[in-house]
Design a protein that fits this description.
- This is Cytochrome P450.
- It holds the Pfam family p450.
- GO terms for molecular function: heme binding; iron ion binding; monooxygenase activity; oxidoreductase activity, acting on paired donors, with incorporation or reduction of molecular oxygen.
- By secondary structure, the protein is α+β, with helices and mostly antiparallel strands.
- 50% of the residues lie in helices and 11% in strands.
- The protein contains 17 helices and twelve strands.
- The strands form four sheets. The protein has a five-stranded mixed β-sheet with strand order 1-2-8-5-3.
- The longest helix is centred in the middle third of the chain and has 32 residues.
- It is globular.
- The N and C termini lie far apart (55 Å).
- Bound molecules: protoporphyrin IX containing FE (HEM).
- Protoporphyrin IX containing FE binds next to helix 12 and helix 17.
Length: 412
């Protein structure tokens, strides 16, 4: 085995601009290679990586251009992460990984769950849950912010959205972690285990679905899906796929934004004091924190025809990683201090963390609402989160976030 690894390494020395390497994220060392890519090769072909050859798109403009051409750059042909589908895998189609016209109908089904009026309806619930979680935290004692706050709040929110049994809500976290970690599909054994958990998740939701069948419509997502044309006739794989999409979409991402709110503001204490002094900046700070964190580092597209992007010839079948993480640090858009958190950044909302175009995150408002309510409730309690040790980070190039974050809270 050791010889095999050495042989591979000898055949292909590591490309320092291969930004798909998990260790860059585990060790928080992705900033420099992306800065080099943005400066020297914003559309760069990486020949050798764990995921095979791929194009890295690392600046703002070409990402917007590519996402504006969904008929040329497909989400369906090869999926939405750098990891390819494996022929022997059972596919679980999700509308994030479908092209038009299927995407349009399925997205339309869940979109009503995220309208501004639905957000208003949910605000009181979210606020009450957030207050409860914050009021249980110990003052002046070290605890894990990820577990006690970020996971607890996002999982509770999903349980409400799905009308999921409350006592079992951590199952959502478990399934989401397995579904969202692309490092977990690198060996056949891990792929097998992952699939097993996804089916377990599917079977559980099938039970919830059956219980709501032939019942009057309720304002949760399962009921909404049952009562819609586009979703109600899906085959079981498609049904499971779309549920998993909503769980992962809503879980890891919002969780890591909440962890970033604690970690990032501690890293930029002047921004924190400015926010503490002026809570009217919270709305903008939410966008800024999501920009700075970028909880999904990339989405992938596959070219359907030969085409050109910024002078580079992309061949039909080539895969492209759209690095939102890097575009959100693009100085030509966000200025020289793009790497910093600036709670009054005038164009924080222009970030690409939610993507762009027809697939732009359908849950963006809900995510912003949850992070905003968290910051508001912290402000009401004059709660400051002090990081006491470096976080443990997710070792992957897709979900960009934290496994644990030791903190202490104090009053300001
Ligand atoms: C799509 C990020 C929260 C559900 C996406 C995309 C990104 C993203 C990058 C793909 C965009 C593209 O391909 O152009 C985020 C971030 C979040 C967040 C950073 C939190 C800060 C949520 C929440 C939900 C959700 C709370 C639902 C509960 C979805 C769904 C899609 C999606 C269903 C697929 C949309 C489509 O293909 O049309 N999200 N998301 N997301 N997200 Fe989110």
């Amino acid at each position: 085995m050791a010889t095999m690894v050495q042989d591979v390494a000898a055949a292909h020395p590591v490309d320092p601009l291969d930004v798909s390497r998990a260790e860059l994220y585990a060790e928080d060392r992705w900033q420099q290679p992306f800065a080099t890519l943005r400066e020297t090769a914003p559309v760069y072909r990486c020949e050798h990586s764990d995921y095979g050859p791929y194009w890295s798109v690392s600046t703002y403009k070409p990402i917007v251009e590519i996402e504006s051409l969904p008929d040329v750059f497909s989400s369906e042909a090869g999926g939405i992460t750098l990891a390819d589908f494996i022929e022997s895998d059972v596919r679980m189609p999700m509308f994030i990984a479908r092209d038009r016209p299927v995407h349009t109908g399925q997205r339309r089904t869940v979109a009503p769950a995220f309208t501004p009026s639905e957000m208003t309806r949910m605000t009181a619930d979210i606020r009450a849950r957030t207050a409860e979680v914050l009021d249980e935290l110990p003052w002046g004692e070290t605890f894990d912010w990820v577990d006690r706050v970020s996971i607890e709040l996002t999982t509770g929110m999903l349980a409400i959205l799905f009308d999921f049994p409350w006592a079992e809500r951590r199952k959502l976290t478990f399934w989401s972690d397995w579904a969202g970690d692309i490092e977990l599909i690198k060996t056949p054994e891990l792929r097998r285990q992952r699939l097993e958990h996804m089916f377990e998740c599917g079977a559980y939701f099938q039970g919830l679905w059956n219980a709501k069948l032939n019942q009057p419509q309720t304002p949760d997502l399962i009921s909404m899906m049952i009562h819609s044309d586009a979703m109600s006739h899906m085959d079981p794989h498609e049904f499971i796929g779309n549920l998993i999409l909503l769980i992962v979409g809503g879980n890891d991402t919002t969780r890591n934004s909440m962890s970033a709110a604690a970690y990032g503001l501690d890293l930029f204490p002047d921004a924190r004091v400015q926010l503490e002094d002026d809570p009217s900046l919270i709305g903008n700070a939410v966008s800024e924190i999501i920009r700075w964190q970028t909880p999904l580092a990339h989405m992938r597209r596959t070219a359907l025809v030969d085409t050109e992007v910024m002078g580079q010839l992309i061949r039909a079948g080539d895969k492209l990683a759209l690095w939102y993480l890097s575009a959100n640090r693009d100085r030509s858009v966000f200025g020289e201090d793009a790497d910093a958190i600036r709670v009054d950044r005038p164009n924080a909302r222009r970030h690409l963390a939610f993507g762009h175009g027809i697939h732009r995150c359908v849950g963006a408002r809900l995510a912003e609402l949850q992070v905003g309510v968290l910051l508001e409730e912290m402000a009401k309690r004059r709660m400051r989160v002090n990081v006491v040790a470096e976080p443990e980070r997710v070792a992957a190039c897709f979900v960009h976030g934290y496994r644990s974050l030791p903190v202490e809270i104090s009053r300001y």
